[in-house]
Specification:
alpha+beta, 2,3-Dihydroxybiphenyl 1,2-Dioxygenase, domain 1, 2 domains, 18 strands, about 30% strand, Glyas_Fos-R_dOase_dom
Length: about 325
């Protein structure tokens, strides 16, 4: 069902940047700079930028009421792959808009193309990131990017098959593996998709049977990978000291073997800081299905009863809410 043939070669796309709307720029500054340890810069009184490497932009926090992701940018390796994607989108009759120069400058790219993706999230593609040699001022040694991209994102969907099809057809993604986890009487099925040597750039979760979406945000969590273990653990302690709620304490996933923790951002979605996940060797990789999300750890550190009630409430109301998928 998921093996959709790709018309373009593998390993040509990676997560490039994320844009978030929030009215809490001051809290985001504390979160990104002082808790996670990112390089922070105000581009204007309404726009906050975070860097983690030579890319001029990795995160943009813009003044807005959504308290959610508005855009995800994906870097495409060359013009040929870009033309292939634009051709697929045209064939699928998905409207594409080319960004203007001011918008491109804000994103730290030469040019970009935008279209509506899963759950109404704007997806942007570009080939020419602006790189800078301006030194980074961070509380960490650095983060793993390069050919792996900025990190990964996870979505919850009531139409997971269509979302998997979207990422495979448009971005040439391949399935790395699956996780099945029973939680609060509900079985959760998660599909992990890779676009490059990173174990997954996108994860898609769905409830088995009756499809619900208990997550109020377009993205359930975003992950970045610390270069060393101390940076990850120190970020965990800084988050706690600064009063940010820890969704899940330090633990390890069984499939990508990453050690990580999850913290609640000022906008309410989760942010995962990880360390030392495996990378995928295409010639030797075999899909597997795991029966638990965590091999150990990742214990909840927030009010479990309240959290479960809120998830149940959102899941119930999601039954009556439509979910946008591009095709």
């Amino acid at each position: 069902m998921f093996e959709i043939p790709s018309v373009h070669p593998f390993n040509f796309a990676q997560l490039g940047y994320a844009i978030i709307d929030s009215e809490q720029l001051d809290q985001w500054l504390v979160f990104g700079r002082d808790a996670i340890g990112l390089h922070a810069e105000y581009l204007s009184e309404d726009t906050l930028s975070f860097r983690i490497d030579r890319h001029a932009r990795r995160f943009l926090i813009q003044k807005g009421k959504a308290e959610d992701f508005t855009c995800l940018g994906f870097q495409i390796q060359d013009e040929s792959s870009l033309k292939t994607i634009l051709g697929i989108l045209k064939k699928k009759k998905i409207e594409v808009r080319k960004g203007n120069g001011i918008e491109a400058d804000l994103r730290g790219v030469g040019s970009f193309w935008q279209f509506s993706g899963p759950k109404g999230l704007k997806i942007e593609i570009f080939t020419d990131p602006i790189l800078t040699n301006t030194p980074l001022t961070m509380l960490s040694e650095g983060f793993v990017t390069e050919e792996f991209g900025m990190g990964h994102v996870a979505l919850v969907s009531k139409q997971p098959e269509k979302l998997v099809e979207f990422w495979m057809e448009i971005f040439g993604a391949r399935i790395s593996d699956f996780i099945e986890q029973k939680m609060s009487g509900v079985t959760l099925d998660i599909t992990f998709l890779r676009m490059n040597p990173r174990h997954h750039s996108v994860a898609i979760a769905a409830t088995r049977g009756l499809r619900m979406d208990p997550i109020s945000k377009k993205i359930q969590h975003l992950n970045i990978e610390a270069k060393n273990l101390e940076d990850m653990t120190q970020a965990y302690h800084r988050c706690k000291q600064l009063g940010f709620e820890i969704a899940h304490g330090i633990g390890q996933h069984p499939n990508d073997q990453e050690l990580s923790f999850y913290v609640i951002t000022p906008s309410g979605f989760e942010f995962e800081v990880g360390w030392n996940p495996i990378s995928v060797s295409e010639s030797h990789w075999k899909q597997n299905t795991y029966k638990q999300i965590s091999a150990w750890g990742h214990q909840p550190e927030i009010s479990t009863k309240l959290s479960r009630w809120n998830e149940f409430r959102r899941g119930f109301f999601s039954l009556f809410r439509s979910e946008y998928v591009p095709f």
